[in-house]
């Protein structure tokens, strides 16, 4: 068990180094430099040249890379061109917003998807299964932005049940109960809508798992031991059917921090996804590079967590 | 359930039919069999002959929506046909143990093998967890597993095929059942392991005085272990006798063809005999006349009965149809004489 984890972590080191190099090259390839934004008709090209020299932009690429890496390790992601604040603090605020929204979304997704998947698998080809399949086709086929905009229009504008944008009302004081309630209230509609539309995979994996496992030999063995049907289902069929979902769970956890671009855009929710899109449209390169790096690291950690989770739940994965 | 009487299982007029495109077709057609204490009853036949159908009918594990079982399976005056599930669950694993063909597939990949055996004990005994572990280790010892304490915490994929089958056997005998049904227990194993597993089954049976139903297509296995043999073809029992009679005086054309297609180790140049054609599929099975007639076309139709019945040709030796009296192999006329002289 621990050997598996250790081996996986060791594999991650070269992956991280390659990731940081790719991100650095990407940043270098972007047009302009930190002083491009300061250039105006009155600026002196000599001053720019001097600043470039001072900030080490004329150094060889590898020197710049190691300096950048050193700063990274100290938590310094640079300054945002546009917002004129440290990128780290900019990202931190957005990450917190995204985390809570994503957490609510994930909880709702599983709360909807797992019962649906179990019901569809258990009642294969019966009316329960067929209605769930129809629901699945709809959520799979409808583009997310159409679904979100329709939801926003119906529940936000027309019915007025939910706020239509932002993460908190302006008239509440931080720290009060009303403040936390307002934050939750702002997250509800985007979370519910995202949960509804992202259930497809989980439902389908669970349904297929149950349908396949139901006829496995070891299920027949369990029955031949006189194990009651209810226990056969929960202990033997369901546990084996949850494996594919466990395989995605690591990425789901790290996905809590990267957020969803579409939902945050539609609901103007100040999270990581919106920050990413804003950085692109505003050409805020430092923020963009930092975000790409963070998303990359999150993916690697997500894969690591998935592997660890798999090795806990499936003994066949463990390295001896 | 009480455990008594020498007659363990009395199967009478068992019909098991599967639903295919709306219609039911008998996969086991009018089966009459008995299993006694201390007896190994072998059911032999090709794939699709209905032998596993009998096993699943006895233990009540079939798709209840698409299977129709009629007739009687009497166990201590209790009819297992149509028995309610909760009562059946008290019998399964406790009074009837089942051993399956593929030991890897028959074990839950996510559970320790020890826990899987202990699960049987959990549902049928009052033992606490510690006692169950002790009993499982004792069982592992009994089925000849090395280092049983260590084996308890292993997962199925960590064991060899032979060890896995020993786990499955330990599971089946955990509650000392009177009846053990072994459905092709050695088919998925290496030849050397096969012999060990068969020896184990025999020694378990001698110790526990249980009755074993051994389902196999392997006549070598039958010769080595069985006491009584029932030969099945296309859902029917075509011949039934003790093992000595089956091998020394087989009568039914199918039994004789099967034996004739066994390789003889003393005759290297001999070509293997092949039975023409294949077992008809469930849907296309002839429901009247002799079902084997199509595969011995050189025997005149008049030799077969219109509605083949089972005849007791000598005490304890049952044969279906009268065609055996005129049967001879196509390439061997001398055989005809042998049969006639008998």
Automatic annotation (TrEMBL), chain A:
Keywords: Cell membrane, Membrane, Transmembrane, Transmembrane helix, Transport. This is Peptide/nickel transport system permease protein. NCBIfam families: Opp4B (NF045472). It is found in: Cell membrane. The keyword Lyase does not apply. The chain crosses the membrane at residues 9-27, 99-118, 138-164, 184-206, 242-267, 287-313. It comes from Lactobacillus colini. InterPro entries: BPD_transp_1_N, MetI-like, MetI-like_sf. Pfam families: BPD_transp_1, BPD_transp_1_N. CDD domains: TM_PBP2 (cd06261). Belongs to the binding-protein-dependent transport system permease family. Residues 95-306 form the ABC transmembrane type-1 domain. It is a multi-pass membrane protein.
From TrEMBL, chain B:
It is a peripheral membrane protein. Pfam families: ABC_tran, oligo_HPY. SMART domains: AAA. Residues 9-259 form the ABC transporter domain. Keywords: ATP-binding, Cell membrane, Membrane, Nucleotide-binding, Transport. GO terms for molecular function: ATP binding. Its main location: membrane. It is found in: Cell membrane. Belongs to the ABC transporter superfamily. This is Peptide/nickel transport system ATP-binding protein. It comes from Lactobacillus colini.
């Amino acid at each position: 068990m621990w050997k598996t984890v250790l081996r996986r972590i060791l594999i991650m080191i070269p992956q991280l180094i390659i990731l940081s190099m790719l991100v650095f090259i990407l940043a270098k390839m972007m047009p302009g430099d930190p002083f491009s934004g300061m250039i105006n008709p009155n600026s002196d090209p000599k001053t720019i040249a001097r600043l470039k020299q001072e900030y080490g932009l004329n150094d060889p690429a590898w020197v710049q890379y190691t300096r950048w890496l050193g700063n990274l390790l100290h938590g310094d992601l640079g300054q945002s061109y546009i917002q004129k604040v440290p990128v780290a603090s900019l990202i931190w605020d957005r990450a917190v917003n995204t985390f809570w929204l994503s957490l609510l979304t994930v909880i709702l997704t599983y709360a909807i998807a797992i019962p649906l998947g179990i019901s569809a698998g258990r009642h294969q080809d019966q009316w329960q299964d067929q209605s769930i399949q129809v629901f699945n086709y709809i959520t799979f086929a409808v583009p997310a932005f159409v679904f979100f905009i329709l939801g926003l229009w119906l529940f936000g504008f027309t019915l007025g049940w939910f706020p239509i944008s932002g993460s908190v009302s302006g008239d509440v004081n931080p720290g009060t109960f009303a403040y936390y309630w307002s934050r939750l209230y702002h997250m509800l509609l985007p979370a519910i809508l995202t949960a509804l539309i992202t259930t497809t995979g989980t439902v389908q994996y669970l349904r297929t798992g149950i349908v396949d496992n139901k006829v496995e030999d070891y299920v027949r063995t369990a029955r031949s031991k006189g194990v009651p049907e209810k226990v056969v289902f929960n202990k033997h069929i369901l546990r084996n059917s949850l494996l594919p979902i466990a395989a995605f769970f690591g990425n789901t956890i790290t996905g809590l921090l990267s957020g969803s671009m579409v939902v945050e855009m539609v609901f103007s929710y100040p999270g990581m996804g919106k920050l990413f899109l804003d950085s692109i449209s505003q050409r805020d390169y430092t923020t963009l590079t930092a975000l790409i790096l963070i998303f990359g690291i999150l993916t690697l950690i997500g894969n690591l967590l998935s592997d660890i989770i798999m090795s806990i739940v499936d003994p066949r994965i463990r390295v001896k | 359930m009480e455990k008594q009487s020498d007659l363990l299982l009395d199967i009478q007029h068992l019909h098991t039919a599967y639903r295919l495109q709306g219609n039911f077709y008998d996969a086991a057609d009018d089966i009459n069999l008995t299993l006694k204490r201390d007896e190994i009853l072998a059911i032999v036949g090709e794939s699709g002959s209905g032998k596993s159908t009998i096993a699943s009918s006895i233990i009540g594990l079939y798709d209840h929506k698409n299977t129709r079982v009629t007739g009687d399976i009497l166990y201590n005056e209790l009819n297992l046909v149509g028995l309610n599930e909760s009562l059946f669950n008290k019998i399964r694993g406790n009074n009837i143990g089942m051993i399956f063909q593929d030991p890897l597939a028959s074990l839950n990949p996510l559970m320790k093998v020890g826990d899987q055996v202990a699960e049987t004990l959990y549902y049928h005994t009052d033992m606490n967890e510690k006692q169950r572990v002790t009993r499982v280790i004792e069982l592992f010892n009994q089925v000849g597993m090395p280092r049983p304490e260590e084996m308890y915490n292993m997962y199925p994929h960590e064991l060899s095929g032979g060890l896995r089958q020993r786990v499955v056997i330990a599971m089946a005998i955990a509650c000392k059942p009177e009846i053990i049904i072994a459905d092709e227990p050695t088919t998925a194993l290496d030849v050397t392991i096969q012999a060990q597993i068969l020896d184990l089954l025999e020694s378990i049976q001698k110790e526990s005085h249980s009755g074993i139903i051994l389902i196999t297509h392997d006549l070598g296995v039958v010769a080595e272990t069985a006491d009584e043999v029932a030969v099945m073809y296309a859902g029917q029992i075509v011949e039934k006798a003790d093992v000595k009679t089956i091998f020394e005086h087989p009568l039914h054309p199918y039994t004789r063809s099967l034996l004739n297609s066994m390789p003889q180790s003393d005759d290297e140049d001999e070509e293997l005999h092949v039975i023409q054609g294949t077992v008809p599929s469930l849907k296309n099975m002839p429901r009247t006349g002799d079902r084997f007639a199509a595969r011995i076309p050189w025997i005149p139709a008049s030799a077969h009965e219109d509605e083949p019945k089972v005849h007791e040709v000598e005490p304890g030796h049952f044969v279906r149809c009268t065609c055996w009296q005129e049967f001879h192999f196509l390439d061997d006329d001398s055989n005809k004489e042998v049969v006639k002289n008998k």
